[in-house]
Amino acid sequence: MTSKINHIGIAVHSIDASMPFYRDTLGMEFEGTEVVEEQRVKVAFLAVGESRIELLEPTSPDSPVAKFLEKNGEGTHHLAYEVSDIEAVLADLKAKGVRLVDETPRSGAHGTRIAFLHPKATGGVLTELCEPGSH
Ligand code: CMX
Question: Which residues of the chain have pLDDT under 50?
């Protein structure tokens, strides 16, 4: 069902302030930034082998990432597993009684389709399903 870890999301107050540690100190390859309007976040991707780190900066005070930062400060925000048929996985999890944040996929960065499982259903880890885009 899940093929690999697509990315690990890390909530930050400022991508510009956090970038030097990942890009320069750890030497990760910076792949670019993108604003995901639907989630009210700006994201920056840094490659780690076949996976990546996703720095998440809120673009609005009502962003879920703004609320997370307010409560917890900066840190690991979510884990994203790659799936090839997100609707089928969501239907399967729903049938198994797993609490979903999103019953239908939303738009993510890079043309992906994403859906979140509630952290109360996953042992406290906000979990994203991520179906890659065609490009
Ligand atoms: N990881 C683990 N637990 C989390 C969490 C996170 N990232 N965010 C919230 N929680 C926990 C809280 O600690 C809280 O637990 P307690 O009740 O034990 O205190 C509970 O979930 C409820 O949290 P809350 O602060 O009251 O927040 P909400 O219920 O309003 O929202 C959530 C929580 C997960 C439903 C919401 O953040 C959400 O819909 N997230 C999915 C969308 C998202 O995060 N988008 C940003 C990333 C986008 C991208 O990657 O493109």
Answer: none
